[in-house]
Design brief:
The chain starts with 13 loop residues before the first strand and ends with a helix. It folds into 2 domains: 179 residues, Rossmann fold (3-Layer(aba) Sandwich), CATH 3.40.50.1970; 202 residues, Dehydroquinate synthase-like - alpha domain (Dehydroquinate synthase-like, alpha domain, Up-down Bundle), CATH 1.20.1090. Strands 1-10-7-4-2-3 form a 6-stranded parallel β-sheet, sandwiched between helices. Strands 5-6 form a two-stranded antiparallel ribbon. The protein contains 15 helices and 10 strands. A hairpin with a 2-residue loop joins strand 5 and strand 6. Helices cover 50% and strands 11% of the residues. It is globular, with a radius of gyration of 20 Å. The longest helix has 23 residues. Bound molecules: fe (ii) ion.
């Protein structure tokens, strides 16, 4: 490691972590100067009562609480606009987002629209040559956000981007700016106990992949790498436990801590093509993000292997493999084996074709991935030189 290199690192805002920490939300909202917070969540979390403790804490702090429980699993431009209208109608002054990536991403989009002119789509990035650009830049934060994750996966509680689906184009667009980052992330593992095993596995794979992709991405980023490697170690030890027994609070807590660390890591260190594939396939198939991540991860690692043997050897150790005395190449193989085994344990190893993905869809996906690969290929251990190379990896997963 050569510390004479330059790097930047954006630290997240305040993180409040621990079982029952969500009972402190009322106090935290008051410290932020709120009198009328808007709780944003999805209908099922609201129905099963996951948000009840948070609402109670806010009321007990003497605040007037409004609830918008209509966040879609896949947030759309329209659902975000109706949340903005609701926020204004009810005279709210802070957003408390409870849920997975969808609720927290929706809250960021609402904050963006509250503070800035124009449409959300104007702030979503589009590919211009090898770069991503948006028509407009976020100028102001419309409302502060307290983010309370109920999954251990996306890391959205500490990142500054939000993905919102536009049914008109069939594409999920991404808007991002440090001003959109939640002011406080309240990470209460008790709230993640409600996750069914399937969601635990899918979102956990997303957290694992986000840390692995960040670590394998190029550039000098010692802070991001340290967080990513710790997250990988913690996830390898705890994800199978949380999947096997959802009530294991120790495993749930470890997973939430690791997912949050992974969020801080990748929002600084970037991602490689596992996410390019999963994002494109997500638009085409509407399968859960983490599921697609889990199905693509082993194959993108295999493709990348020759460009990052040393790093994969380090990864093997973080994944719990015994690698003393092994050559870097052999240790790298162990890392690939460990990822494949973990995916199989979590039952995320079915071929893409079993989800009725047609060969035609596969070709369209390959073209879309290739059309936007340049920025990530520039820093990935191994990028792509043609659509056929992109397709080759897809076919392995097919
Ligand atoms: Fe992800």
């Amino acid at each position: 490691m050569d510390w004479t290199n330059m790097f930047q690192f954006r630290a997240p805002a305040r993180i409040v972590f621990g079982p029952d920490s969500s009972e402190k939300v009322g106090e935290i909202a008051r410290e932020l100067g709120s009198k009328a917070p808007l709780v944003m969540t999805d209908p099922s979390l609201h129905r099963i009562g996951v948000t009840a403790g948070v609402e109670k804490s806010l009321r007990e702090a003497g605040l007037r609480v409004e609830v918008f429980a209509e966040v879609m699993t896949e947030p759309t431009l329209t659902s975000v606009e109706s949340a903005v209208a609701f926020f204004r109608e009810r005279g709210c002054d802070l957003i408390v987002a409870i849920g997975g990536g969808s609720s927290i991403d929706s809250a960021k989009a609402v904050s963006l629209l509250l503070g800035n002119e124009g449409k959300l789509s104007e702030y979503q990035q589009r590919r211009v040559g090898a770069e991503w650009r948006a028509e407009r830049k976020v100028q102001r934060r419309g409302a502060e956000i307290i983010a309370i994750p109920t999954t251990a996966g996306t890391g959205s509680e500490v990142t500054s981007g939000c993905g919102v689906f536009d049914p008109a184009t069939g594409i999920k667009g991404w808007a991002g700016d440090p001003l959109l980052r939640p002011s406080v992330a309240v990470c209460d593992p008790v709230l993640t106990l409600s996750m069914p095993p399937r969601v635990t596995a899918d979102t956990g794979m997303d957290a694992l992949s986000q840390s692995i992709e960040c670590y394998l991405n190029g550039g000098f980023k010692p802070f991001a790498d340290a967080l990513a490697l710790t997250a990988i170690e913690v996830i390898a030890q705890n994800l199978p436990r949380a999947f096997a027994n959802g009530n294991d609070l120790a495993a749930r807590s470890a997973m939430l801590g690791a997912a949050t660390m992974a969020g801080v890591a990748f929002s600084n260190g970037g991602l490689i093509h596992v996410h390019t594939y999963a994002e494109v396939l997500g638009d085409l198939t509407h399968l859960p993000h983490g599921r697609l991540i889990g199905l693509m991860l082993p194959h993108v690692l295999e493709w990348s292997r020759i460009g990052c043997v040393e790093k994969l050897a380090t990864l093997a150790r973080a994944l719990g493999e015994k690698v003393d005395g092994l050559s870097a190449a052999d240790a790298a193989e162990r890392a690939l084996g460990a990822v494949r085994r973990l995916a199989a344990d979590l039952e995320i190893d079915e071929p893409l074709r079993s989800h009725r993905v047609s060969e035609e869809t596969l070709r369209v996906a390959a073209e879309r991935v290739y059309s936007q690969h340049a920025a990530r290929s520039a820093t990935s251990p191994r990028g792509f030189r043609s659509v056929d190379e992109v397709l080759e990896v897809l076919q392995k997963a097919y």
